[in-house]
Design brief:
Helix content: 40-55%
Bound molecules: cobalamin, iron/sulfur cluster
Distance between the termini: 80 Å
Shape: elongated
Radius of gyration: 25 Å
Structural class: alpha+beta
Number of helices: 18
Largest sheet: 4 strands, antiparallel
Order of helices and strands: HHEHHEEHEHEEEHEEHHEHHEHHHHHHH
Number of strands: 11
Strand content: 5-15%
């Protein structure tokens, strides 16, 4: 770097706004005079903006990496109240997830980006015996976001800097980073929203040692709107910006074990994720209107009949602890119970002999909801052979 002239820099930077062009390797930044460094950072930022545009990122912003003190406090409060519901992610080590320098001591800036997955995700229109997947999980929404972030990271590395991509990674609280970088504002649903896409965005960052100019947070709030709070079917948004994950269907759908009986009906046809508080959000309404293709529906009987490997392969982009397909089978049983179609009794009652007692218990509940002669006979037969206490209780509760 020290050997370059300002004229050479200008020449380099005039071509680097084309995202296909790589910046030269091996810049020795400490030898730069501050004005040169500043100018180079501005050029680098323009280059990053061009990459963001070429990858159809919704927004891009730069934030300082000082610790997210308020978010750490919010996480501690959620843990104290039990609102984390035993989820791991950023809750496991809040001192690290809210302070990037613990993982990356050299970090100076976060380049934060968002990308919308609507309207490509479509709008689920479930038919008979079909369940619903939340829009963000119809495809992997992080793959195209990561591709853009990777290219930004490569351009920073080409310019002689360090860069690591973090998207949906436990080492960073993505929403707090997005709010600080001006990519969106913190909504009462806890979602980060932007004016064009509402909550229909996923978030990711590149952490770097390049001291890029920082952006200001958005001067915008939800104002008087609070539509997401009553829209939540379980009352999981217990206050503006505060989520009790124990009642959040998105958390329940991905957690192993028994679904509390009082929340099973509210699960409706969901087998993964929940969109109700997003659907209700006015800033996202316009985009939602054009998202009309029917996607996100899953044949539940087929899912119940599929082998472990096939379930894992088909839903490989879902987050399932230990990659356990039984979590989705459990949700499928609950969804069939909620649908109440007598045609599914054969598929559901097959699960009364499954080796996993959690699935036997949820099959019993589903048959109780579906009702009818065949369901009752299956419950009676199962009661005669069942030995697990928790399943016996479910069989008794489900029997007419
Ligand atoms: C754990 C987790 C979950 C958990 C818990 C969510 C939660 N709200 O805490 C569960 C499984 C429930 C979940 C569900 C979903 N998730 Co999630 N999840 C995460 C994860 C891994 C960590 C979130 C976290 O740190 N929570 C801890 C709490 C304290 O943080 P927070 O709620 O985000 O904190 C903000 C608010 O509390 C707000 N706040 C605090 N006080 C106040 C006060 C007021 C008045 C206001 C307005 C705001 C406010 O400020 C905080 C900082 O921004 C992130 C990825 C990551 N590494 O960050 C994705 C992430 C948050 N999830 C995401 C998505 C897409 C979802 C779902 C929409 C998926 C779906 N359709 O089912 C739902 C949405 C449910 C909801 N309303 O939040 C996106 C959100 C993108 C966005 N636009 O905000 C993220 C960022 C993943 C990503 N990289 O894109 N998720
Ligand atoms: S994702 Fe569903 S259950 Fe969770 S807070 Fe939003 S509406 Fe409520
Ligand atoms: S529904 Fe209204 S209050 Fe809730 S996040 Fe959206 S704009 Fe904010």
């Amino acid at each position: 770097m020290a050997t370059n002239t300002i004229a050479e820099y200008r020449m380099t930077f005039s071509i680097t706004c084309d995202p296909r062009v790589r910046l030269p390797l091996g810049r020795d930044t400490p030898a730069e005079v501050p004005e040169q460094y500043h100018r180079r950072m501005q050029e680098l930022r323009r280059h990053i903006d061009a990459i963001a545009e070429s990858h159809h990122l919704a927004a891009i912003g730069v934030a300082a990496v000082t610790a997210f003190v308020e978010t750490r406090q919010a996480i501690e409060e959620r843990l104290e109240a039990g609102f984390d519901a035993g989820l791991t992610f950023t809750f496991t080590a809040p001192e690290t997830s809210t302070d990037l320098r613990r993982s990356f001591p050299w970090a100076e800036r976060l380049v934060v980006a968002s990308r919308t997955y609507l309207p490509a995700a479509g709008a689920p229109r479930p038919g008979p015996d079909q369940g619903v997947v939340a829009r963000f999980a119809v495809d992997d929404p992080y793959a195209p976001l990561r591709a853009g972030l990777e290219e930004i990271g490569e351009s920073l590395i080409s310019a002689g800097h360090r860069a690591v991509v973090l998207a949906d990674d436990n080492r960073l609280v993505d929403r707090a980073a997005a709010v600080r970088a001006g990519v969106g504002w913190a909504g009462k649903s806890t979602m980060v929203l932007d004016p064009r896409h509402g909550p229909w965005i996923v978030l990711g960052s590149v952490v770097t040692d390049a001291k890029l100019p920082v952006d200001e947070p958005m001067i915008r709030t939800c104002g008087t709107c609070d539509a997401c709070i009553p829209a939540c079917p379980t009352g999981a948004i217990v206050g503006p910006g505060v989520l009790d994950a124990r009642r959040c269907l998105a958390a329940i759908a991905q957690s192993p074990g028994t679904i509390p009986t009082e929340l099973r009906q509210a699960m409706g046809l969901r087998i993964y994720g929940c969109d109700d508080c997003l659907d209700a959000c006015p800033p996202g309404a316009q985009l939602l209107e054009i998202s009309t293709d029917a996607r996100g529906s899953v044949d539940l009987v087929e899912l119940l009949g599929a082998a472990d490997e096939d379930v894992r392969l088909r839903f490989s982009h879902f987050y399932l602890p230990k990659n356990d397909p039984d979590v989705l089978r459990r949700n499928a049983l609950v969804a069939l119970g909620n649908q109440g179609d007598a045609g599914s009794v054969g598929a559901v009652s097959g699960y009364l002999t499954h080796p996993n007692p959690v699935l036997r218990a949820h099959a019993a509940w589903a048959l109780g909801r579906i009702g009818g002669r065949r369901a009752s006979a299956a419950l009676r037969t199962a009661l005669g052979r069942e030995t697990a206490r928790e399943v016996i209780d479910e069989l008794i509760a489900a029997s007419p």
